[in-house]
Write a structure and sequence with these properties.
TIM Barrel
Length: about 290
């Protein structure tokens, strides 16, 4: 059972997961369908479909995968490929009736990949907007403050509305990019949280969804926390505990993980709050305290 108010976009149809990669390598359509069904039954509201490099080398396969998934589940799909031509073919194959009349979700548009916005003119879609980087002086640079995250989100939304793309705020998901805690020496998680707050407080962005890929957060950390609890899962829950009250409402994650908001006296939550306020070596030393017993 997921947290009330939290939308889950199922992330598992992605070759970044070893078990899924073997399904793609073997073109195991039945296995992919089973994975789609498992995520749907676990409570996903959307299923993200990412075929990796295979989508570029063989667009026919990406189309086949989308059709096969739609044959067994009635959820809308998040179509995840950076190539415009591939996305266009997949959009044409998407059967909205099989998704209960619900529009597909384009994952994702950024200022450096603005051509993907033209997909919204092929058919009505929802879209994920990447707000963690911006186009500056002809090149993409990472954002460093929550104010920049908010500025980029607002700029892309205004551009979509001015360009006649036919989207409403409820059609849009701002991805604030959740980074790996173990490598965050620059306060990027704090930046994402501040960006969430600013986007949610902006009246012009009312109704927009705010999201991120939660499974990035605990990568490269041990399984167990210093208090013996499940460190990786607790970190994901810690982020949600901090982020949901300020406006985060959608996660790209694994639907069968039993996400929950943590009590304030939870060890991992307390340490997470401390770590995100630190920088450089202080942050790294505090991260070790998460899993190393004294």
């Amino acid at each position: 059972m997921s947290i009330p108010g939290l939308t889950i976009i199922g992330e598992r149809i992605n070759p970044g997961f070893r078990s899924t990669k073997s399904l793609f390598d073997n073109e195991d359509i039945k296995g992919i369908q089973d994975l789609a069904l498992r995520q749907a039954k676990a409570g996903a509201s959307y299923l993200n479909v990412n075929a990796g490099d295979k989508a570029i080398s063989d667009p026919r396969f990406m189309v086949e995968v989308v059709r096969a998934i739609q044959a067994v589940v009635s959820l809308p799909l998040s179509l995840d490929c950076p190539d415009f031509a591939v996305q266009a073919e997949v959009l044409k194959a998407y059967d909205q009736d099989k998704a209960g009349g619900r529009k597909p979700l384009i994952n994702s548009i950024s200022e450096s990949r603005w051509e993907l916005a033209e997909l919204l003119k092929i058919r009505p879609c929802k879209a994920i907007l990447m707000s963690s980087e911006q186009l500056r002086d002809g090149r993409m640079v990472p954002n460093r403050t929550g104010a920049e995250v908010h500025e980029v989100a607002r700029r892309m939304v205004e551009r979509l509305k001015a360009g006649g793309y036919g989207v409403k705020n409820d059609d849009l998901f701002v991805d604030v990019a959740i980074v790996t805690l173990a490598a965050d020496t620059e306060g990027l998680i704090k930046m994402a949280l501040e960006g969430i707050r600013l986007v949610r407080e902006d009246p012009a962005l009312a109704g927009i969804h705010i999201m991120g890929g939660l499974s990035n957060l605990p990568q490269h950390l041990p399984d167990k926390a210093a208090d013996g609890s499940d460190l990786k899962f607790q970190l994901e829950c810690a982020f949600l505990t901090v982020a949901m009250p300020i406006g985060f409402d959608t996660v790209l994650g694994t639907p069968w993980r039993d996400y929950a908001l943590l009590p304030e006296d939870n060890f991992v939550l307390r340490e997470f709050r401390r770590i995100i306020e630190l920088r450089e070596s202080d942050a790294l030393m505090a991260i070790v305290d998460l899993y190393q017993q004294e």
